[in-house]
Every structure is written in C-alpha cells, then in structure tokens.
C-alpha cells in the first residue's frame, strides 16, 4: 500500500475559504459549474476501460489524475495472514461547516472555534472511521486539529464541494465521489453545492475489505424535497448493487430521512441491499417505526438515551466471508461540547461499535491492479467445500483473463478473450497455493500484466509479461485458491484471490 507520508501534503493543502458577496457568489457559481463538468469526466465509468484514472493506493485523495504520473512502486512482497476477527468503531457527524453567513445552525460559539474542538475530539476519541458531512468552509481547521492517518482531500467549500470527507485509521482503495442525479431547492438550497455520496473500499486487514459509503441527501419536506431525497437514496442503493455485489457494506451519513415519514425512501437500504440499520436494531428491537407516526425528535442538547431518531444513519451488512455485528449504538453528543458545555453542531454525532469475524473456511488476498472495468466477486457463487479442478489463464502482452472450474462443476471466468489460453488440470488432492501478480500502466490505466500460480505439487501456470511491480500472495496453511474478486473488462484490471479450506 502507499505511504501515508505521501498524503500529508494533500491533507495540508490550503483550502479556499470563500467570502460571500452576492456578485462574487454568482461568479463562483459559474466557475463551480465549469469545474464540475470537468470533474465529472473523472468519476469511474460503469463500462469497462473508460475510467481514465488509476489508483493503486491510496487513501486520502480523489485527485486521481496525478497517479498516472507516479512511477509504479516496486514492492514484491509476500502477504501476511489476516487476523480472524477484530473490532472497529465508526462515527457519522454533520459538522455544520456551511459559512456562518449562510447558516448559523443556532449553535453558540463561532464556527472556527467549534470546528477546532470537533477536530480535537475526533483525535482524542480515536474513532476508526469518521464520515463527515457539511465539511465545507472550516475544513482546514478540522484537519489541523485532527490526527487521523488517512483522510480524503477536500472537494472544496461551498459552492464547489460536497462537504463529504472521511478520516480513518485504515487505508483504502478506489475512492470515488458521485454527485446526486437529482436535487431540489423546494426548501433549503440543496442545489447550491454539488452534494452526493462517496465510495471507498476500506482495507481492514490483509484481504479483508469493507465498502464504505458516506452521503448527504436532500433536505426539507416539500414535495420536491421528498422526491429528490428518495431519488438520492435510490441512487446509492443502485450503486451498491453494482459496485458492492458480494461485499460487506457500511453506509453512514446524513440521510435527511426518518422512518416515520412515508416518502423518504430510507427503507430501500433494507429492501434492496439487505442492510441493517444499527439504530432500528438497538433502539427499536429491529422493527421499523411506523410510517405516519409522530417524528421521534431528539431533545435539544445531549440526548439521555437513544430512543429518539436522528437523520444520521448507520446501516451495514456482512457477506459470506465477513460477519459484521453491531455491538453498540450511541449518540456521542457529550463528547463534542464547547468549554461551556454547548453543542458544536445541530446534529448529534452517531457512533456504532462493530466486531468483524471471518468465516473459518475462507480467506482472501489483497487486491492488486487498478480500479477500472466492472466489479465481480465469486464469493456468493462458491459451493460448500469448494476445490479447484482446472485453472485457465489467457495472456499476451498483459493478463487477459483468469478462469477456474471447481470439482463441483461450478466455473468462473473473468476478463476478455484476447491472448493465448493455457490450462492446468489439478490432480486429486492438489491445490493452488500461491499466485504472483504484476501490474503496470496501459493507456493511462493501472491493470494486471502477469500472473503466476503455483500448486501444492510445485506445478506452475503463467500468462502475460512481468513488470517491476509484483506481489506474491500465498494461501494460509491448509487453504487453496478457489475463486476471484476484483474488476475486469476485456483484461484483468484488479484481481484478488479467494482461498477455501481444503
Ligand atoms: C491522535 O491523538 C490522540 C490523542 O489526542 C492519540 O490518542 C492518538 O493515538 C493519536 N492518533 C494518531 C493516529 O496519531
Ligand atoms: C429517553 O429520553 C426521553 C427524553 O428525550 C425520555 O422522555 C424517555 O423517558 C427516555 N427513555 C428511557 C427508556 O429512558
């Protein structure tokens, strides 16, 4: 993975602090519209091969163009075993960072001072992953007072940025900002600034990835707001179906939605994506509050319990490999108070503690390559007690495809049909124990150029051409390769191995 040191300069980059004169504001809006239309060429395209950016690492930036010019880092290495289980906590906090002149939020104290305290408390309580919303014009203050190792670079103040950032103790892959397709100014100025959601694939441990989504949905309760908000949440749900298929997922942020409101559309994460809401689980015994019931509003100040509902939600699911369990839902408001015990934001900060536990019969490798093409994951399709039967690779100047068929008859193929095919049929009791991948740049995209697999009988299968950036990934003792996960198009953009106990 990349060196966190690389990121410090991005984190420390000066953030434009905007002043609001009406004339300047209009000028800025036009500039923002232009910069948006340029920026929009960079989000990951759904089709194979048309993403133009390439990120091997790295936490902390969506300034992805720069990575094209980075020399690839040569770090051949053998992977370590991951732990079998662990814990982490997450915090969702709307930090109320709109310029004071636009939105005072009714909090006492000036926003720069309040934001400094928020940053200090984020450091002090060492939350593992924090999603902030409305991190607009006091962003530099927030980061100057916080100390998390991995942090996203800001997308700017109002009206340039989305206000969404992540501060994390874990590194990640594939950070992407996505703008809402729908916004409404029916009440509040949701179209003023390009709000939306973010995606990143957080690496908790070797081969242990969880997809993290931050969001800030449309506010207000006019008809136009309700339509926009439901469309926003639907957009995230649809994205999860494509980009997180087969994966463990955490969605946390400011949904601006309540379960008691009929038209907010917040139930889509349960019905479409199979996510569990941590507050519904802990405060409501797993039963959604009734639609049309009175809003379960929190009192002003510090809530004394969690029976009130806030619009800041934490939703999660595990997968066949990772069991995620909510071990506690908290309003952490009392941790974020001024010296005279006033709240610092008009939102209660929400914390959820999690444990993660890996299936005893499965392990995964790290992902290698670049985040282009389409996400795939063989995990949901694996039979019980999978065993590899035939391994097939296609390669030429680069790695075109990988395929594996299992003794159960199941088979998985990823990538394209170019290059020359080579196959290895495993003997009874023979397993694929390790794989070396090498990656490099092609047409400005990072992808895999080479694969070498070695079996328990010391037989090998190779395809493609080596580069100076390679990693060898070895199954834990008693495990063998039975499937893959990653991203493909007509070649192998990003690839990881699924190991099963043999
Ligand atoms: C950040 O600071 C807190 C103390 O405020 C400390 O406990 C924590 O270990 C620090 N974290 C990092 C990543 O340096
Ligand atoms: C939770 O707090 C509210 C005040 O916000 C109070 O009315 C209610 O009785 C409390 N519930 C419990 C179970 O303590």
UniProtKB/TrEMBL annotation:
GO BP terms: phosphatidylinositol dephosphorylation
A Pfam family that the UniProt record links to this protein: Jacalin
One Gene Ontology cellular component: cytoplasm
Domain Jacalin-type lectin intervals: 373-501
Origin: domain of life: Eukaryota
Keyword Protein biosynthesis listed: no
GO MF annotation terms: carbohydrate binding; phosphatase activity; sphingomyelin phosphodiesterase activity
Sorted UniProt keywords: Lectin
Key word Magnesium present: no
Listed PANTHER family: SPHINGOMYELINASE DDB_G0288017, SPHINGOMYELINASE FAMILY MEMBER
The name this protein goes by in its record: Jacalin-type lectin domain-containing protein
């Amino acid at each position: 993975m990349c060196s966190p040191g690389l990121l410090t300069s991005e984190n420390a980059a000066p953030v434009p602090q905007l002043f609001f004169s009406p004339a300047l504001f209009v000028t800025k809006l036009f500039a923002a519209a232009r910069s948006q239309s340029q920026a929009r060429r960079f989000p990951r395209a759904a089709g194979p091969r048309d993403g133009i950016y390439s990120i091997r690492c790295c936490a902390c930036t969506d300034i992805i163009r720069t990575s094209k010019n980075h020399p690839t880092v040569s770090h051949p290495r053998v992977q370590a075993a991951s732990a079998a289980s662990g814990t982490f906590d997450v915090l969702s906090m709307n930090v109320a960072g709109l310029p004071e002149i636009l939105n005072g939020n009714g909090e006492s104290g000036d926003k720069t001072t309040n934001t400094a305290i928020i940053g200090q408390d984020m450091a002090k309580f060492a939350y593992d992953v924090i999603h902030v919303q409305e991190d607009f014009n006091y962003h530099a203050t927030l980061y100057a007072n916080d100390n998390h190792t991995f942090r996203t670079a800001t997308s700017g103040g109002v009206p340039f940025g989305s206000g969404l950032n992540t501060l994390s103790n874990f590194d990640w892959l594939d950070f992407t900002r996505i703008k809402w397709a729908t916004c409404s100014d029916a009440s509040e100025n949701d179209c003023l600034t390009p709000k939306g959601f973010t995606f990143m694939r957080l690496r908790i441990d070797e081969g242990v990835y969880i997809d993290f989504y931050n969001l800030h949905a449309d506010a207000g309760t006019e008809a136009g707001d309700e339509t926009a908000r439901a469309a926003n949440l639907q957009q995230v749900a649809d994205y999860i179906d494509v980009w997180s298929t087969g994966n463990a997922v955490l969605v946390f942020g400011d949904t601006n939605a309540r379960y008691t409101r009929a038209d907010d559309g917040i139930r889509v994460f349960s019905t479409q994506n199979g996510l569990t809401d941590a507050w519904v689980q802990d405060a409501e015994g797993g039963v959604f509050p009734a639609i049309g019931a009175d809003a379960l509003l929190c009192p002003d100040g510090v809530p004394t319990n969690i029976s009130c509902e806030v619009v800041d939600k934490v939703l999660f699911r595990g997968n066949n490999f990772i069991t995620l369990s909510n071990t506690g839902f908290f309003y952490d408001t009392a941790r974020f108070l001024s010296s005279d015990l006033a709240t610092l934001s008009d939102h209660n900060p929400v914390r959820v503690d999690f444990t993660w536990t890996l299936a005893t019969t499965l392990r995964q490798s790290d992902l290698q390559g670049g985040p282009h093409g389409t996400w795939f994951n063989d995990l949901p399709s694996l039979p019980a007690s999978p065993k590899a039967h035939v391994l097939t690779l296609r390669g030429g100047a680069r790695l075109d495809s990988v395929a594996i068929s299992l003794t159960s008859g199941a088979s998985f193929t990823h990538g394209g049909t170019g290059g020359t095919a080579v196959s290895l049929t495993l003997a009874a009791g023979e397993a694929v124990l390790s794989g070396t991948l090498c990656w490099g740049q092609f047409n400005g995209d990072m992808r895999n150029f080479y694969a070498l697999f070695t079996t328990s009988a010391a037989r090998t299968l190779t395809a493609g051409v080596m580069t100076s950036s390679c990693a060898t990934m070895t199954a834990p003792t008693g495990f063998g390769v039975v499937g893959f996960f990653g991203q493909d198009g007509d070649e192998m953009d990003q690839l990881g191995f699924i190991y099963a106990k043999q």
